[in-house]
Amino acid sequence: xxxxDRVLSxxxxxxxxxxxxxxxxxxxxxxxxxxxxxxxxxxxxHALTTGYANPETLRESVNDLLxxxxxxxxxxxxxxxxxxxxxxxxxxxxxxxxxxxxVGWLERVPTYKEKQQELSGRDLSTYGFLGYxxxxxxxxxxxxxxRVPVGVDQVPHLEISxxxxxxxxxxxxxxxxxxxxxxTEFPKVPGIDGRKMSKSYGNxxxxxxxxxxxxxxxxxxxxxPARIKRTDIGDPELSPVFQLHKxxxxxxxxxEVAEGCRTAGIGCIDCKKVLIRNVYKVLEPIWAKRDELxxxxxxxxxxxxxxxxxxRKVCRETMALVREAMGLY
Length: 329
Description:
Helix content is 56%, strand content 8%. By secondary structure, it is mainly α. The protein folds into two domains: 6-189 and 297-326, Rossmann fold (3-Layer(aba) Sandwich), CATH 3.40.50; 211-290, Tyrosyl-Transfer RNA Synthetase (Orthogonal Bundle), CATH 1.10.240.10. Strand 1 (6-12), helix 1 (19-32) and strand 2 form a beta-alpha-beta unit.
């Protein structure tokens, strides 16, 4: 029997995986798989809440996300990997929880409002988009997960899962633990334009980019606007390039490029060359693994199928308890 605390997390299959996803989530997931009973899933139903009009890209995104899970270091021998839509119990629990969840709880979730603003060009006036903040708690409490890896700024997003678990337990029977935040330090990863790295902003460096594409994107990044000429001094804290150095470069390298910026001892191109080299160090093993997996799609299917069988077993146990508590046959 596995006595480790269970951890649950997922990632939307809404496009390519970028460096922000790698640093903010995947690298942490890799560490957690050695200490917890980890369940990680491809959230393809979540992707439909905003990308329902583009079904032709969904399956490709699911496969690419699985490839990136494995390329980043997730080990199916240590964690359970599965695809959300393969387990219909997720939808059933989402429906049953909707019977007891006030609409106001969903509307106040921070990401609900943030996505409305970020994706203002899309029609998000759908029941599915309103309900996606409830699908997330259904995903989490389905596995009776005790821990959910989040950054400090994401704790409010987890609170609705705790509230819904509490309301179900108080209304029917105590089945669900209230999931606790497994706080992790997620460094901010800026995009090539200085804003938060995001697929929606078109400012991301993707794990699937070629070395040439990565180099070109970093070379075109904005730096301190005060450094117009090579001899101008600058402030590294105003440069998105330096913010990426904080993520990918050593403390010694950070100190060197910062001093070079403040004294005009190095140019912006020199600063970017150091960053390119360090980003390559992170991406090269991922590129090699991606290349291997792309040519063996049958391995992906096998891993996803095995993970789905294991996850479905947990879900069926949970739903049997839920149906009994709610008086359903």
